[in-house]
Amino acid sequence: MSFTPQYSGRELSWLQFNKRVLEEAIDSKNPLLEQLRFLAIFASNLDEYFMIRISGMKSQVDIGLSTPDKKTGYMASEYLNKMLKKSKQLISMQYEIYQQRLEELNTYIKFVPFDELSKKKQDKMNRYFKNIIYPILTPIRFSSYMPFPLLPNLSVYLISKLQDAKGDIHYSVVTVPKNVERVVHVKKDHFILLEDLIVNNISYLYPGLDVLEVYPFRITRDFDIEFDDQSDDFAKSVMSELKNRKRGDAVRLEISNQASPEVLSFLKENLDIHKKFIIPIDGPIDLTFLHELHDKIQTRVGGLSFVPIPPINPRAFSTDESMFDTLRKKDVLLFHPHHSYEPIIRLIKEACEDPLVVAIKQTIYRTNKDSRIMEYLVKAAESGKQVTVLFELRARFDEENNLYWGTVLERAGAHVIYGVPNLKTHSKVLLIVRKDKNTLERFVHFGTGNYNEDNAKIYTDASYFSSKKLIGSDATHFFNYISSYSQKPRYKRLVASPNSIRDMIFDRIDQEIANQETNQNGRIIFKVNSITDVKMINKLYEASQKGVQIDLIARGICCLVPQVEGLSENIHVRSIVGRYLEHMRIYYFHNNDKPQVYLASADLMTRNMETRIELALPIYDPVSKKKIIQLLHLQLEDNVKARENIEGHYDYVKQKTPVVDSQLELYHILK
């Protein structure tokens, strides 16, 4: 098979995205503590990469998969090695940046090793260890009759090499507890890490034994699981598989680069892990603790974090009238987190309390653990309203939370659906049905983001509220379809995957090609998280070759290679990584100066097109459409946080006057 340069590999493109996150930790435009927080975000992103992407590729190698990757032409073993090599390069870069930022931080606070504390402070910390930490710890010593335990995923451990009075060597592991603060405040401006405190008191755990060596380490396990859609009890099947996840194979061992060959050999053998998955670390294991450090220090030292930006209370909902009264008169578009998320919660609250509301239906892909939305749905169900909620149990890392809320709602009397067989429901829609005498009203909220109040503070998403009859009718058909597994309905406004969203986009692209040939004004703008679908990429290449001007604002993965002569010279790709996580999905078609604009839940990925239930909503309201187009052009003008993709490589857009940070500028426009 000949290798084609038309596509970037998905897994390597994701690493490019995480590199852009890492680069935010060296961007002087970000305050110091925010730079540290980007290091933590990079770290948690990479954890997931190993748990899902590295583990997935490793599984292909283990079963001897002989089919080359469709986009890159790499065999699985070759691709895995490239993924590991690039990951290790980024980890090395991560710790170099960490050391640099730590030196700057020492200007404000002293984040120091235990042995650099004064005798008085060491004594204070030793008392804290014996009174608070020691009772929590459980050292596990290994012997012929006590085998190596199954160590949970992503915990930091300390492994000790011990010697008894006879001279025999033993090994023991203790977990650095997660239920106490990892960043320990010593006094005034002095801080240390919890594992450093434990190491310096490690002999207290092993009386009568000599501690010869002690090193921190962490294990990352295969967290990718498959669920049996055909199970008679799908929820029970998910619970069973979640237990199996904890026993996944080790796919990464992070350990201090000071660890001796003997300790490394011991862990390698007992974890059954190949040396290429072992990563020596020059610094603290697991830099996600920097989130905690950020929160502790920002309250003590001002000016090191982003200036808080309070969410805007939308003018459309600022009156005393009910949201139902407002939506009868007009549709409303909001942009989060710039706009407050409260209107969504308020809408559900009003529906819960309004005696004329007879039904509330909603899809939930991800929600927060202390969700007020869920609490109001529970109250609505308990009051006798018809409440129907689809929880997607295959929403990775949110399975347990969705199971919890599904169980709570079932007990309250709601009708709970745990997904649709063979399809993952990723759409975000809410339908409220209100009956006043002989009049039936339907109110719809359509979103590009999840019903998660925590994420709404940092994810950029759009919310669209409407009482239009065609949208309400479509929403009714949609919920009947997913609750009864019936034939896919014909919609008047909504466009739904599987397949129809791609078909719609292809039709619109063909129209832009025709407009280009006739009027030389073919124009497309897509704002999405990721672009991986080969059919979509090839269609965009076709449009580019016909002269259609295409701008793709893709925050994460992009397998399309732009700016290649004869292939994609009319396609420009940019990624915006900044204060907020860009999460909105928008499709724009110029349509011969009569723009067609869609808000959507779907990225341009094969899974979103073919194996997920997704929704796209055409926006006809002229005020809302104008705002969406304004947002798109604002992001195309960004020269602060935008990076351009030139033949697969990303570089910051050159700054010019005026300076435009689209995330901040949008706030000022909306305000």
UniProtKB/TrEMBL annotation:
A Gene Ontology term for the protein's cellular component: polyphosphate kinase complex
Active-site residues annotated for this sequence: 426 (phosphohistidine intermediate)
UniProt modification remark: An intermediate of this reaction is the autophosphorylated ppk in which a phosphate is covalently linked to a histidine residue through a N-P bond.
Name assigned to this protein: Polyphosphate kinase
Catalytic activity of the protein: [phosphate](n) + ATP = [phosphate](n+1) + ADP
Residue numbers binding Mg(2+): 366, 396
Gene3D superfamilies: Endonuclease Chain A (3.30.870.10), Polyphosphate kinase middle domain (3.30.1840.10), Polyphosphate kinase N-terminal domain (1.20.58.310)
Polyphosphate kinase middle domain residues: 121-293
Residue ranges constituting the Polyphosphate kinase N-terminal domain according to the UniProt record: 7-103
Entry-linked HAMAP family: Polyphosphate_kinase
Keywords: ATP-binding, Kinase, Magnesium, Metal-binding, Nucleotide-binding, Phosphoprotein, Transferase
MF (Gene Ontology): ATP binding; metal ion binding; polyphosphate kinase activity
Annotated organism of origin: Candidatus Xianfuyuplasma coldseepsis
Domain Polyphosphate kinase C-terminal: 322-487, 494-657
